Amino acid sequence: MPNVTNLIWDEIKWLKIHCVFSRLATCNEKPESSCVLNTEVELLSEQGVDYTRLRELLAASQWKEADKETANVMLKAVGREKEGYLNIEDIKKFPCKDLRTIDQFWVKYSSGHFGFSVQKRIWEEVGGNSDYETFEKLGERVGWSKRGSWLNYSALTFSTQAPMGHLPFRRQRVRDLDFYVARVGGFFYSRVATCNL
Prior knowledge:
By secondary structure, this protein is an all-alpha fold. The chain has two domains: 1-39; 43-194, Arc Repressor Mutant, subunit A.
């Protein structure tokens, strides 16, 4: 006669394995909406950055303020508050844990409409290269530019009526050198990919 306790434990193990694989399948189908939206996002940071305010702004759908706070916390994560911008080296070493935290908040509170991982997917769809042409295509798709002209910050749409991936806004002007900005943007999405977002 088989041991009833062992049979129960075997059944529990099988159910756990089945649940894990079901969850993985769901995550692979809809990574933004099914995995991030239904889980609590932890305030994780490799650099000790406090993401509480960002979470609160996003939870309240205060998209413009959250966008500005995103820029602030990203500068804090690499110690560039004084300079006020990220360079390619900062992006190459941007802490994955911090990038993931920021992204998960955006994805969760926008119901999968906004976030770096959403932008990265679009960047890959338009070529996935670190060149101006790819960045221009990304800008058109996410609504940062129209008919080849980059929009001013005030012209962005700070609501979920914006195109998919519209926020957070990644384009920074560096001495009006759009090509440099495009390269930085390309490196940024490469970093997002490296961090498995």
